[in-house]
Specification:
By secondary structure, this protein is an alpha/beta fold. The protein has 12 helices and 8 strands. Strand 1, helix 1 and strand 2 form a beta-alpha-beta unit. The relative contact order is 0.20.
């Protein structure tokens, strides 16, 4: 009797991506064996962590994270094509898995990226894991794109934030998808309080960025620093730039998912309720992982029923 192959789809969702860890832990607890994974953006990051054998390390990293540590991974770039380079985040996987190539993963992983000029979906499944992660995580306007095989690539969530079709094409008999964008973002009041909570950390990072840019660009750095002051002003009543980018992307991805799910429906759809988490709330890992675990456990009976039907 052949066991059906279970494919896991890990969707995009920035800080809500930590929930994927909880879902995987719930599936493993109940003996659900994952045969393949398709990921977009944050989902690609967790997919690589798990398939490379480093999920426990990444979980500890996430649980220990505070806002100061979040800021340490924002390798600020001069804002030509993005504010953040993204290399530090991509290389983080190597430090926990010691895997640098797709071919070394113990579970097949396909990552989704987007060609920023043609708008076509690009599936990355071989070669450099770090380069693929940088592409799949390259949120437009925030993280710099990367050139791979003559294509400038950005976040896969731009065209396919929940790549169910990719997992189906990989040959999965049962597709379990984790959707992190099913809930709308919280109110502006909640966004502002979340921003104020991290204001001290941003102030320190702001001063570090100003200092480095003044050293690098001389007099021009003073102009840049004035702009940074505007971005991070706590007295400015309008939303800050990261809030605008994050919220807009969340709205876009939710709409795309709704359309895609009409044509590519997973067998099991898991939807952690984390709509109040903002783009940079990476220090809220405990809550996100816990919610992912609860929703994952709720889905186990349905997954087991599907396995039973296909195995009989």
């Amino acid at each position: 009797m052949t066991q059906p192959k279970i494919g896991l789809v890990l969707g995009s969702g920035s800080s809500r991506g930590w929930a994927h860890i909880g879902v995987i832990e719930a599936l493993e607890k109940h003996g659900v064996e994952i045969s393949m994974i398709a990921g977009a953006s944050a989902g690609s990051f967790i997919a690589a962590s798990y398939a490379g054998g480093g999920l426990a390390g990444i979980k500890k990293f996430a649980m220990d994270m505070d806002w100061k540590r979040v800021l340490s991974y924002l390798d600020i770039a001069f804002p030509r094509s993005g504010f953040i380079d993204g290399r530090k985040v991509a290389e983080l996987i190597q430090s926990y898995t010691h895997v640098s190539q797709f071919e070394d993963l113990h579970i097949p992983v396909h990552m989704v990226a987007t060609d920023m000029y043609s708008g076509e979906q690009v599936i990355l499944s071989q070669g450099s894991l770090t380069d693929a992660l940088r592409a799949s995580l390259a949120v437009p306007g925030l993280v710099t794109p990367i050139l791979i095989d003559d294509h400038w690539l950005v976040d896969g969530g731009v065209v396919n934030p929940l790549p169910v079709d990719v997992c189906q094409a990989m040959g999965a008999d049962i597709v379990v998808a984790v959707d992190l964008n099913s809930e709308r973002s919280g109110s502006r009041k909640n966004v502002r309080s979340s921003w104020n909570k991290h204001a001290a950390g941003f102030e320190k990072k702001r001063l570090e960025v100003i200092s480095s840019w003044v050293q690098r660009y001389g007099p021009a750095g003073k102009t840049v620093s004035a702009k940074i002051d505007q971005w991070f002003s706590r007295e400015e009543p309008s939303p800050h730039i990261f809030e605008v980018l994050g919220t807009s992307i969340n709205i876009m991805q939710k709409k795309i998912e709704q359309m895609n799910l009409e044509t590519h429906t997973p067998d099991i759809l898991i939807r952690p309720r984390l709509g109040d988490l903002k783009f940079f709330d990476f220090d809220m890992a405990e809550r996100a992982i816990g919610e992912g675990f609860r929703r994952g456990e709720e889905a186990v009976p349905a997954i087991q029923a599907q396995i039973s039907v296909l195995s009989s």
